[in-house]
Protein backbone atom coordinates (compact mmCIF):
# COMPACT_ATOMS: atom_id res chain seq x y z
CA UNK A 1 0.00 0.00 0.00
CA UNK A 2 1.16 3.50 -0.81
CA UNK A 3 0.42 6.33 1.60
CA UNK A 4 0.87 9.94 0.55
CA UNK A 5 0.91 12.50 3.34
CA UNK A 6 0.89 16.20 2.51
CA UNK A 7 0.68 19.47 4.36
CA UNK A 8 -1.90 22.07 3.36
CA UNK A 9 -0.92 25.11 1.29
CA UNK A 10 0.12 28.39 2.88
CA UNK A 11 -2.71 29.77 5.02
CA UNK A 12 -3.45 33.24 6.35
CA UNK A 13 -2.36 31.81 9.69
CA UNK A 14 1.08 31.08 8.20
CA UNK A 15 1.36 34.64 6.88
CA UNK A 16 0.14 36.20 10.13
CA UNK A 17 -2.86 37.86 8.45
CA UNK A 18 -5.37 35.72 10.34
CA UNK A 19 -4.27 33.70 13.33
CA UNK A 20 -7.80 32.52 14.10
CA UNK A 21 -8.67 28.93 14.82
CA UNK A 22 -9.44 27.96 11.21
CA UNK A 23 -7.79 30.29 8.63
CA UNK A 24 -8.25 29.88 4.88
CA UNK A 25 -5.50 29.52 2.30
CA UNK A 26 -3.67 32.60 1.08
CA UNK A 27 -3.42 33.32 -2.66
CA UNK A 28 -0.01 31.64 -2.57
CA UNK A 29 -1.53 28.66 -0.76
CA UNK A 30 -4.21 28.32 -3.44
CA UNK A 31 -1.48 28.28 -6.09
CA UNK A 32 0.54 25.71 -4.13
CA UNK A 33 -2.52 23.48 -3.79
CA UNK A 34 -3.20 23.74 -7.52
CA UNK A 35 0.37 22.76 -8.31
CA UNK A 36 0.10 19.77 -5.97
CA UNK A 37 -3.13 18.75 -7.68
CA UNK A 38 -1.49 18.85 -11.10
CA UNK A 39 1.35 16.73 -9.78
CA UNK A 40 -1.03 14.10 -8.42
CA UNK A 41 -3.52 14.23 -11.29
CA UNK A 42 -1.96 11.31 -13.14
CA UNK A 43 -1.07 9.33 -10.03
CA UNK A 44 -3.20 6.38 -8.94
CA UNK A 45 -5.09 7.48 -5.83
CA UNK A 46 -7.95 5.44 -4.42
CA UNK A 47 -9.02 7.71 -1.57
CA UNK A 48 -8.46 11.32 -0.46
CA UNK A 49 -8.78 11.91 3.28
CA UNK A 50 -8.52 15.38 4.80
CA UNK A 51 -8.44 17.12 8.12
CA UNK A 52 -11.72 19.02 8.62
CA UNK A 53 -9.86 22.33 8.97
CA UNK A 54 -10.56 24.66 6.04
CA UNK A 55 -6.95 25.06 4.89
CA UNK A 56 -6.61 21.30 4.52
CA UNK A 57 -9.96 20.91 2.74
CA UNK A 58 -9.11 23.71 0.30
CA UNK A 59 -5.83 21.94 -0.46
CA UNK A 60 -7.44 18.53 -0.89
CA UNK A 61 -10.13 20.02 -3.13
CA UNK A 62 -7.62 21.02 -5.80
CA UNK A 63 -6.55 17.41 -6.26
CA UNK A 64 -10.07 16.03 -5.87
CA UNK A 65 -11.42 18.36 -8.57
CA UNK A 66 -8.79 17.29 -11.08
CA UNK A 67 -9.34 13.61 -10.33
CA UNK A 68 -13.14 13.84 -9.96
CA UNK A 69 -12.98 12.25 -6.51
CA UNK A 70 -14.76 12.74 -3.21
CA UNK A 71 -13.03 13.90 -0.04
CA UNK A 72 -13.47 12.10 3.27
CA UNK A 73 -13.10 14.11 6.48
CA UNK A 74 -11.29 12.52 9.40
CA UNK A 75 -11.32 14.55 12.65
CA UNK A 76 -8.32 12.56 13.90
CA UNK A 77 -6.23 14.58 11.40
CA UNK A 78 -6.73 17.89 13.23
CA UNK A 79 -3.53 19.85 13.77
CA UNK A 80 -1.81 19.47 17.12
CA UNK A 81 -2.77 22.39 19.30
CA UNK A 82 -6.22 22.92 17.78
CA UNK A 83 -8.44 24.38 20.47
CA UNK A 84 -9.95 21.69 22.69
CA UNK A 85 -13.57 21.00 21.77
CA UNK A 86 -13.35 22.55 18.31
CA UNK A 87 -15.11 20.35 15.74
CA UNK A 88 -14.48 22.36 12.59
CA UNK A 89 -17.01 24.24 10.45
CA UNK A 90 -19.08 21.17 9.59
CA UNK A 91 -19.81 19.33 6.36
CA UNK A 92 -22.46 21.77 5.12
CA UNK A 93 -20.04 24.70 5.28
CA UNK A 94 -17.17 22.71 3.80
CA UNK A 95 -19.36 21.60 0.89
CA UNK A 96 -19.29 25.24 -0.20
CA UNK A 97 -15.59 24.66 -0.90
CA UNK A 98 -16.08 21.25 -2.50
CA UNK A 99 -19.49 19.56 -2.80
CA UNK A 100 -18.27 15.95 -2.73
CA UNK A 101 -17.38 15.73 0.95
CA UNK A 102 -18.42 13.10 3.47
CA UNK A 103 -17.25 11.81 6.82
CA UNK A 104 -14.53 9.19 6.96
CA UNK A 105 -15.95 5.90 5.78
CA UNK A 106 -15.10 3.07 8.13
CA UNK A 107 -16.97 1.16 10.80
CA UNK A 108 -14.95 2.47 13.74
CA UNK A 109 -16.07 5.26 16.00
CA UNK A 110 -13.81 8.26 16.48
CA UNK A 111 -13.92 11.32 18.74
CA UNK A 112 -15.58 14.43 17.33
CA UNK A 113 -13.97 16.69 19.91
CA UNK A 114 -10.34 17.31 20.76
CA UNK A 115 -9.01 17.42 24.28
CA UNK A 116 -5.86 18.96 25.66
CA UNK A 117 -3.00 16.98 24.13
CA UNK A 118 0.57 16.41 25.15
CA UNK A 119 3.17 14.77 22.90
CA UNK A 120 2.24 11.24 23.95
CA UNK A 121 -1.48 11.71 23.27
CA UNK A 122 -0.81 13.29 19.87
CA UNK A 123 1.45 10.39 18.93
CA UNK A 124 -1.24 7.93 20.02
CA UNK A 125 -3.71 9.76 17.77
CA UNK A 126 -1.27 9.54 14.84
CA UNK A 127 -0.82 5.79 15.40
CA UNK A 128 -4.61 5.43 15.42
CA UNK A 129 -4.78 7.10 11.99
CA UNK A 130 -2.09 4.86 10.53
CA UNK A 131 -3.73 1.73 11.94
CA UNK A 132 -7.12 2.69 10.53
CA UNK A 133 -5.62 3.26 7.09
CA UNK A 134 -3.74 -0.04 7.12
CA UNK A 135 -6.82 -1.94 8.32
CA UNK A 136 -9.14 -0.44 5.76
CA UNK A 137 -7.16 -0.40 2.52
CA UNK A 138 -5.72 -3.26 0.49
CA UNK A 139 -2.09 -3.81 -0.41
CA UNK A 140 -2.51 -2.46 -3.95
CA UNK A 141 -4.30 0.75 -2.98
CA UNK A 142 -3.02 4.32 -2.66
CA UNK A 143 -4.27 6.84 -0.11
CA UNK A 144 -3.70 10.59 0.15
CA UNK A 145 -3.87 12.24 3.58
CA UNK A 146 -4.06 16.04 3.70
CA UNK A 147 -3.19 17.37 7.13
CA UNK A 148 -0.84 19.77 8.93
CA UNK A 149 2.84 20.48 9.46
CA UNK A 150 3.18 19.50 13.11
CA UNK A 151 0.77 16.58 13.03
CA UNK A 152 2.39 15.23 9.85
CA UNK A 153 5.60 14.80 11.83
CA UNK A 154 3.68 12.51 14.18
CA UNK A 155 2.00 10.69 11.28
CA UNK A 156 5.27 9.98 9.50
CA UNK A 157 6.93 8.87 12.73
CA UNK A 158 4.00 6.58 13.52
CA UNK A 159 4.01 5.07 10.02
CA UNK A 160 7.74 4.35 10.20
CA UNK A 161 7.63 3.13 13.80
CA UNK A 162 9.87 5.96 15.06
CA UNK A 163 9.45 7.63 18.41
CA UNK A 164 8.79 11.37 18.43
CA UNK A 165 11.80 13.31 19.69
CA UNK A 166 12.14 16.90 20.85
CA UNK A 167 15.45 17.27 18.97
CA UNK A 168 14.26 15.95 15.57
CA UNK A 169 11.31 16.31 13.23
CA UNK A 170 10.40 15.79 9.60
CA UNK A 171 10.42 19.20 7.92
CA UNK A 172 7.05 19.91 6.30
CA UNK A 173 6.83 22.82 3.85
CA UNK A 174 3.43 23.90 2.56
CA UNK A 175 2.19 21.15 0.18
CA UNK A 176 5.38 19.18 0.85
CA UNK A 177 4.59 15.61 -0.18
CA UNK A 178 5.65 12.47 1.68
CA UNK A 179 5.43 8.94 0.27
CA UNK A 180 5.46 5.85 2.48
CA UNK A 181 5.11 2.31 1.17
CA UNK A 182 3.92 -0.67 3.19
CA UNK A 183 5.26 -3.87 1.63
CA UNK A 184 4.58 -7.53 2.43
CA UNK A 185 7.65 -9.48 1.37
CA UNK A 186 7.74 -12.44 3.73
CA UNK A 187 7.57 -9.92 6.56
CA UNK A 188 5.84 -6.56 6.79
CA UNK A 189 8.16 -3.77 5.70
CA UNK A 190 7.75 -0.03 5.59
CA UNK A 191 9.72 2.16 3.19
CA UNK A 192 10.10 5.94 3.13
CA UNK A 193 10.09 6.66 -0.60
CA UNK A 194 10.57 10.41 -0.04
CA UNK A 195 9.67 13.16 2.44
CA UNK A 196 8.82 16.86 2.10
CA UNK A 197 9.08 16.85 -1.70
CA UNK A 198 7.84 20.20 -3.02
CA UNK A 199 9.38 19.94 -6.49
CA UNK A 200 5.89 20.59 -7.95
CA UNK A 201 6.39 24.19 -6.81
CA UNK A 202 9.55 24.41 -8.89
CA UNK A 203 9.00 22.21 -11.93
CA UNK A 204 6.06 21.59 -14.21
CA UNK A 205 4.31 18.23 -13.88
Brief digest:
By secondary structure, the chain is an alpha/beta fold.
Class from helix and strand fractions? alpha/beta
Query: Looking at CATH, which topology would you report?
Result: Rossmann fold
Radius of gyration, CA atoms, in whole angstroms:
16 Å
Our estimate of the beta-strand percent is 15-25%
**Order of adjacent strands in the largest pleated sheet:** 4-3-2-5-1-6-7
Largest sheet: 7 strands, mixed
The CATH homologous superfamily is called Phosphoglycerate mutase-like
**CATH class (first level) name:** Alpha Beta
- Calculate the terminal CA-CA distance, rounded to whole Å: 23 Å
The outline comes out as globular
CATH architectural grouping? 3-Layer(aba) Sandwich
Q: How many helix segments?
A: 6
Approximate helicity band: 25-40%
Order of SSEs: EHHEHEHEHEHEE
The low-confidence parts are none
How many separate domains make up the residues? 1
**How many beta-strand elements?**
7
Query: What's the mean pLDDT score?
Result: 94
Summarize the helices and strands and which ones pair or pack.
Elements: E1 2-7, H1 12-15, H2 27-40, E2 47-50, H3 54-67, E3 71-73, H4 91-94, E4 101-103, H5 119-136, E5 142-147, H6 149-160, E6 177-185, E7 187-197
Parallel strand pairs: 1-5, 2-3, 2-5, 3-4
Antiparallel strand pairs: 1-6, 6-7
Helix pairs in contact: 2-3, 5-6
Amino acid sequence: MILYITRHGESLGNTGENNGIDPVLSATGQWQASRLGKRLQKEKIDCIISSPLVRAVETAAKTAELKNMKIELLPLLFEKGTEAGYEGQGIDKLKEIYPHIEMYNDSEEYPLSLYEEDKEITYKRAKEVIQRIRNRFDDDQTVLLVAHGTFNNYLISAALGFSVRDDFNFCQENTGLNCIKFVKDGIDKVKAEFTNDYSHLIYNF
